[in-house]
């Protein structure tokens, strides 16, 4: 496991549970709006943390913690992910996986082997716009679709989420995404925020991305709710 960040306690990352969060280093996407650029672009990588030390810390606090969130970066490209999760499950803790859905076989194995209890998948945009929004020109959209299908039918807790960015998303692409996710059990729309770690900024590219206004986000939410009635905005003040 390549771990570059560790939050010892959070009430925000695992819905309804006191958890800690692990940030893995490395990702196979290049979403221009990504706020964790230092976990994605190798030229910004920071020294790795000691996996055993982190496991030791979790073990010590396992009577207080309820769960562990594994995020990134992209956890499913990590060698040693399964062994790491097994160590956590041996401590009787819940595991939440955040994934971009590029490795459906890994997600399926983790579900089948009861190694994860919750999966949160970023659905970047409609299938037609996936390459643009993920920053991966040759993205294998069939793999992403397989991940969506298997997560929906897995029986474990899940959520889908989309970060909306003016310059990358449109009413049409939002509508197509919502049609794809029709009747999902949980779907959150998040708003892009310009921060220092944003990939587009780190790459020194001319900034073309902007946040939608609250009014625009509410309009997009009402489009989404035609297909996914439980959809909500998240983190929008
Ligand atoms: S937002 Fe995109 S680039 Fe950033 S970690 Fe997630 S999938 Fe990777």
Explain the overall architecture.
This protein has 237 residues and is an alpha/beta fold. It has a single domain, classed as TIM Barrel (Alpha-Beta Barrel). The chain has eight helices and eight strands. An eight-stranded mixed β-sheet has the order 1-2-3-4-5-6-7-8, with helices on one face. Strand 6, helix 6 and strand 7 (187-191) form a beta-alpha-beta unit. Helix 3 (104-112) packs parallel to helix 5 and helix 6 packs parallel to helix 8 (214-225). The longest helix has 12 residues, at 141-152. The model has no long low-confidence stretch (mean pLDDT 95). The site of iron/sulfur cluster (SF4) has 12 residues, from loops.
Keywords:
alpha/beta; TIM Barrel; eight-stranded mixed sheet; 8 strands
């Amino acid at each position: 496991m390549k771990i570059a960040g560790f939050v010892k306690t959070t009430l925000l990352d695992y819905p309804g549970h006191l958890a800690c969060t692990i940030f893995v280093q490395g990702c196979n996407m290049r979403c221009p709006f990504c706020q964790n650029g230092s976990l994605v672009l190798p030229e910004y990588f920071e020294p790795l943390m000691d996996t055993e030390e982190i496991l030791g810390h979790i073990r010590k606090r396992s009577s207080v913690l309820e769960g562990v969130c594994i995020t990134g970066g992209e956890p499913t490209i990590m060698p040693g992910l399964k062994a790491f999760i097994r160590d956590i499950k041996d401590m009787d803790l819940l595991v939440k996986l955040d994934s971009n859905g590029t490795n459906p076989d890994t997600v399926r194995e983790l579900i089948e082997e009861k190694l994860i209890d919750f999966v949160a998948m970023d659905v970047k945009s409609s299938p037609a716009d996936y390459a643009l929004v993920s920053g991966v020109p040759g993205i294998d959209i069939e793999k992403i679709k397989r991940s969506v299908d298997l997560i929906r039918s897995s029986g474990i807790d899940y959520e889908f989420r989309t970060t909306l960015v003016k310059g990358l998303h449109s009413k049409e692409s939002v509508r197509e995404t919502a049609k794809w996710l029709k009747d999902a059990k949980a779907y959150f729309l998040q708003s892009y925020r310009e921060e220092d770690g944003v990939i587009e900024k780190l790459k020194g590219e001319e900034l073309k991305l902007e946040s939608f206004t609250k009014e625009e986000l509410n309009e997009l939410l009402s489009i989404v709710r035609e297909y996914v009635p439980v959809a909500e905005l998240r983190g929008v003040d």
